[in-house]
User: Fold these one by one.
Assistant:
Number 1:
Amino acid sequence: EAGFAVTAISRTPGVTYNESFDLQCIIKPHYPSWVPVSVTWRFQPAGSTEFHDLVTFTRDGGVQWGDRYVGFRTRTAIEKAESSNNVRLSISRASDTEAGKYQCVAELWRKNYNSSWTRLADRTSNLLEIRVLRPVTKLQVSKSKRSITLVENRPIPLNCSVKSQTSPDSHFAVLWYVHKPSDADGKLILKTTHSSAFEYGTYAEEEGLRGRLQFERSASGGLFSLTVQRAEVRDSGSYYCHVEEWLLSPNHAWYKLAEEVSGRTEVTVKQPDNRLQVNQTHKNITVLENQWVTLECLVSSRTSPSSQLSVDWNVWRSGHPEKEVVARLSRQNTLRYGDLVVLGDLRSRLHLESPSPGLYILSIQNATVRDSGAYDCRVEEWLLDPSDRWYKRAEDLSGLITLTVKQPDPTLQVDTATANLTVQEKESFPLDCSILSRSSPESHFAVTWYNLRAKEPGGEEEEEEEREAVLSVGPDAIFSPEAGRWEGRLRFQRLSAVLFRLTVLQASGADTGNYSCRVEEWLADPNGVWYRLAEVESGTVAVHVQDAGSTLQSVICSNDALFYFVFFYPFPIFGILIITILLVRFKSRNSSKNSDGKNGVPLLWIKEPHLNYSPTCLEPPVLSIHPGTMD
């Protein structure tokens, strides 16, 4: 045992995964092969403080493996040199489980006469530290940045590209993150492990993304895609992927070799551009009471054909500081009336319809003056988001429709011609009230006859004319009481819808005077309330009641037509006749070429007639004709 020593050496203190390394245990002096020497390789794993027997080359030339590291046997070879007792340990396909410290222990033995063995000496070698290094990663992930702007309900395409990898056998785990401005760190959406298992992150669970995520991997294995279906506005954010490269160790265990983060994709999900437009044309509508009014609200364009619209009709009325809601048609086609309609009578007169998409018509039946005002419609457009929730996307106002409801323009006209009427005492005389035109076929009339007594001389001053109501007939055909002196002597007749007659029976001298009628035109509004539209007065009828002994002169003077026929019309006719005679005579004279007084025949001369007319009708007109002398 003198000079007995052991040394451990290795040429490859550092190896890479799957490479091989050799350990040599050199024993000195070089004993011949028949000298019994046993050599044991011991191993202390990296991170441990204990040594364990790995393999022993026994003194009789056998190999005995330790029971702790059974896995070494498949990848370890032990060899003893023939010329010496040196022992070489070879380990192939190194992994991190082979990393650590190695040493060899040599024992020198002697065989006794009784076949027993005595250990003469043992020596322990120096420590050999073997480092098993992982492969140098070549993983590279695309760092390019991009921005995507899209409308909701469209898919969000996200790509993660591996540009290079360490080994063709590399597997990848991809983690998808989203970072919101309000968050400090990104939130995990989805993780796909190196074994292609899916794990949803907290963000996907909180935001309900599980049903909207679609993951794909290209056939080449270097391109990974994540698609978020039916994008929502809240999906906006900064997306990126985290790639892990995994390799299979020689021990058939997967280990993560490297990891890298991709560039970010800025995603902006917005609502569809507002394309809602309502016709802004201002209109003025003027109608008469009781007519049918149609107000149109036209949607000229909308954001989406599948959108739903709600329509509010409002009115600004004179004297009201704020607009009032008339009716509201919800997007579910539910009709609701405003307070103005509920409290008034408008509800029963409203009719709302949509004859075509985008056209809404509000009709008011039997319009009244109170319906006047400035109307408009407010349209709201509702869209369905990817989560099947309706939200209001836009609203727009129409132009103002100024509605003016008027009472009919009064066109009442009554016969205003004056007339003279002479009757004898005890006779009857009619007083007609003729309506020439009326404002409406539905008009009713109230008629009142008046008596205006003639003036009576009373010295220097004359008394005012006395106006007395004879009879009144209301629009409801109710008669007023007859005045005292007319009682029992009046007879009313309605000869037609526009002709009324009052007959005074048993005329007396006190009935002499001027008579007229006043007509009031009444109409019913849409609520059935009657109102007076107009009133006019007819011309006067001068009535003269004669006593039984009246003279012919008084009869003629009291009747204008008779007066003109007797005293006026004959004189122009007689004058025309005389002028005709003179013209004939003048022509005859020229043809005979006679001068004034020739042949003893004097010329005919006529003095211009003089007509004396007394407008007081107290005396008849005097006609004076002065003829010339004629041979």
Note: Residues 459-463, 594-631 have pLDDT under 50 and may be disordered.
Number 2:
Amino acid sequence: MAAPVAPRASDPASRSETLKVAAASLIGTSIEWYDFFLYGTAAALVFNKLFFPTFAPLTGTMAAFATYAVGFAARPIGGIVFGHYGDKLGRKTMLYLTLLMMGVATTAIGLLPTYATIGIWAPILLVAMRLLQGLGIGGEWGGAVLMAIEHAPAHRRGFYGSWPQMGVAIGLLLSTLVFRHFSGYPEATFLAWGWRVPFLLSFILLAVGLWIRHRLAESPVFARLKSRKGEARMPVIEVFRRYMKPMLLATGARLAENGLFYIFTTFSL
């Protein structure tokens, strides 16, 4: 989402409200990253056998990883789209929508028929669900950070803004543990239905996340801007016009970091 406006001394919510929003952001991002990382583990271990069985094992694995890459291509698009509308309609609404999108897409993956049932449509539907996942996580992370820091006092914005980032590690750990449990089943059982259960569990996490976010107040910074009609007409254009250099620097730094991270957490499987 677009660069946040620094809160005035009178803007920050009470300490209890700030903690509530930070905790909700942490839980929401943990759920979304559970969904996102779950796909990576399945791409490494399962999808080549069930969605690309006509390929040689190595080629099938690479095709499965190619579907995984679709989520990364969609993430910046999701950030732009949901960031734009988050600056016009509110952070809370977009966070609710991105969580819903992510949870529905992940649950749908657990229900997808495989190549043996519907042929080429199986990988096509898999790619479509991965696209929705990427769009959702692209809008989720930035919005969650904004909600946390815009509820926080100015001198604690960095601290509370770090809470959503902890959701990345929690989501990775949770998805790995859940998938590890079901991968311990006999291979025939695991490939028949065991791999689906971690994806279907996302529906429960989705219900919890939506309930938590429904109880949150809108960002006080956005509420103040809306009350004085200070929203930008085209937030996306404002970002590119005013913040191009820091945006490119931040993007380069994150590319260098994330490249190695995903090699270790997915491709090494």
Note: Residues 57-89 form the longest helix (33 residues).
Number 3:
Amino acid sequence: MYNYHNLNDIEFEELCKDVMQRRLSANLRLFSRGRDGGIDLTDNTHSHNIVVQVKHYIRSSYANLKTALKNEVEKVNNWRPKQYYICCGKELTAANIREIYEMFSEFMMTDHNIVTLKEIDEFLQNTENADIVRKHYKLWLYSSNILGEIYNQNVFIDCETLLSDINEDCKSFVPTHIYEVCMEHLINHGTLMLTGGPGVGKTLTSKMLVLYFATQGYRIRYTTNGDITNIKNSLSHDKEQKEVVLLDDCLGQHYFKMKQSQEDELLSLIKYTKLFTNKKLILNSRITIFNEAKERSYEFNNIFEQKKLVNYIINMDEITPLEKAKILYNHLKLKNIPEDYYSAIIENKNYLKIVQHKNYTPRIIEHVTFEHNYSRVLPKLFFNFIIDNLTNPHDVWKNEFEQRLQSIDRAFLTTLYSLTDTYIRHDILKKCFLKRLSTMNNIDSTVDQWSLVLARLNQSIINIVDLKGKQLIGVINPSVNDYLKLVFTNNLLELNTIRDSICNALQFERCYSKEELPNIYYQLIIDETIHEIDFADIHQKNYFITSQIFEHHIKNINYTPIIFDYLSNSYYYNYSHGNWLTHFEVLSASLSDEFYHFYSIDQFIHSKDSISNLLDGVDLDELVMTINLLNEFFEAQETGPPWFEQICKEKLDESILNYIEGINTSDYCGNYDMGELIREHTKSYWYKGDVDEDVDKSSVVSDLEKKIISDIEEEVQEKLSSLEVRFQQLLHTPTDFYIDTTDIENAVDSYLRDSYQESYHNNSSDQSLIAEIEAIFER
């Protein structure tokens, strides 16, 4: 018999739900006692055709069970189900069963409606129901002696590090959907890759998968140091020998330092284990390094492209609210949270606010349920304490930042925050960090401090993401940034140290207030130290310098080449900086009496090639404004060059076409009454006594296309209307142009889908999910 003693009440109810659903071929839903007056499982919350009452009572006497069931008689009479079942966590005698049946005989076909623990076990012992057993991991885990064998080198080979805290892990583990999918895949296919960000549960999921196969007679081999050759050589060549290999962080902590030989060894091991049905291989890696590996190695990527090895991703955002609720419940129960504290979670269904919080992580839940943390607040404030930690998890990161990190790690994090609160390119952060490092004392320059810091922080605070072959670095959770903001703003000494080491333009806006920035920018231009600062590219740098020169009325002949380069090559670049002058404002300032002659703008403005470059690629709105500005200047100076009109015509024609080609037709579809258009092209007819409708979708799309083309023509004319008449007369606005109708078709399809969709579907789903979460906490 399986060991049912380690199942808590929630887990036993979940087990009975799976058992009874299969026995009755019915979908059952779990509800809290508060919602349905005692119902545990039912097929219908309104009619109660089937009601299943679950009584755990594995450690209680039959007398206690009988008393509890007597209290249910009146409720059952009120529900009046067609079939009433009792699932009991006890073994009952024939006399016990007869006595219970007499209480509820009106609603039971036979006494077989009373399902005892023995009958549950017999059902689960049937191989056809092995999937239910696998799902409820405590059944197979505690029914074996596997936890007593974790130091047996004949079973767990070199697994001491992996299983050092396995007892605690087993109690708090929640078998999520991804765990079940991975289990099924391993059983059927033998190998898998498990990837995800730091802290999402890759290692814990891998541990629980390993334990299952250990109970099935497999020997476990484990490594986390990349020593793949020894693992492969140690595998038995006996194809009947059951073995599981777990490679933790199989691609290394930093893929860019991984040797080519290790990559080859890994590929060799994957191919080798696939030769034997009794060899299982579990690999896990950070998703970023996994993506890098696929980009770098054609053969490695090919294994996944051809599905020779399948990758499963654990994403915190994809862990369901129900799974998060179970994680919360497990921590509350495992740590024996006092009743008065627990009540604060139940009140007003506060648990729903916790599991739906955007910053929810198992790490924070673990933190707030440690006694030394929650005991600092009164029981009635426990919920507020949890929400405060989720919203502003200062205590979690304060402890990490002040007590666990080295000074060099803290400098790294504040440098990261000085650049971004999302992600920043690896090379940009590295340069800024090394500049910051140069200001610190007692730093050992003989070692690669950058790599050492990444190695230390990557598993706890930072995350590395691969984007098209480039590494981006950021913190693992927005709550880390919340804490760093406090450190950054409250520690003036550290802030000033970072300011002294700024080497990237991004850092200014994060290190200085809006009020301080103008003077800082002014000083950079005056001192010419701006040349020491990195920008996104040369266009952004030239734009910034030129903008600041004219905004602060700076005259320095050394900047003339930069101004010319900006006007020729960077005028059309779009950088959204609210504190900088716009391109039009910069050009207007350059034509003013103050700067026109000082910076020799006349040499630029009267050059055909220069004006052509200036107007090249400018969007239609800004092009019209720029042409008007230049035309007004030439007319005032009476120096209009003869080639000016022709260049304007060419650039306007080109810009109009670019504008039309860049149109997103889906943006226009919402401007029209889609329902009216569809009704105009819908035919109704009788078919077998019913009214049927046929929508002529192609006609709807055609009408929308005509309306959108007409609107686009009007928009273009409106944009050109501010031009002087002689320029308007030069233009030939296209009246017959093509637009892609794909988005229009999609918009029509979307409208039709929304019209036919049953409105109650989502509401029912949401209510069902909430009811299941309520059933966990309100007992």
Note: The longest helix spans residues 697-720.
Number 4:
Amino acid sequence: MKKRTDLPPLNWLKTFEAAARLLNFSAAGRELYLTQSAVSQQIRLLEHHLGEALFIREHRTVYLTNSGLAYLPVVQSAISNLQRNTSEIFSPLGKGRLVIEVNIAFSMMWLSPRLSRFCEQYPGLKLQLVHANWDNEFNRSPADISIMHGNGEWSGMQLHPLFTPELKPYCAPRLASQLSDPGDLLSLPLLEIVGNRQGWQEWFQQASVETANADILYHKTDNLAAGMSMGEAGLGVFLGYPDFFTDQLNSRKLLSPFDICLETEDNYYLAYPKGRPLSKSAAVFNEWLLSELGYV
């Protein structure tokens, strides 16, 4: 059989998916409302088109070849994406699904408490939040739109910065009462967010605090949401984005002992691939999110 690189007809692929999943041509025919002979014929046409056998046929039993085993998840993913995107584009907005890939801290500290307002505007729209923390954890699963944290150096992505890129110290009122000068921080436990490009050393330089001979106690965590919880509990002082903590400051769960801000390379970004139009649900989420943040 001569190998072909152009795409085979969709109905052949749907028939292959059913037959490969069920490992039974008759059962595949019943699922697709085809006769067993029609299923067999479409499988042979697909194999001829691809130039390679996909099934091993033994009496009344069929097995997938190595090529068939490798091809099945590819076909299933393609069909699933086609079904989902067809529904997303052509179905009424209220019956769609929105998959948001979002940084853990942003989800817990900002997005999740506000999502009820979004859902009130778009009742019936199904939400799915997929959480990630590090840059390399994003884009592992299909998502309509992403909210990422980092320096924004992600090729091929359309980006909109969401926060003012600066950090300042926060802590529980009990610890804030012990602070009158930035140098006093050296005697308290400090919470460090692993992965941030700027942190306490840069903040101390900004505040003109000498740290060379200081014996500083650091507690470390890999996300700001955990750092905030630790800070509220009085475990230490942490650096955070002011845009996150309006509610905590108003309720006095947290205080900012010093109004000294450190400009940071990192920020939170609304992100999606360049050149790919947003789905209906992603477009309205994009507009809602920027409106909530005061950009529109």
Note: The radius of gyration is 27 Å.
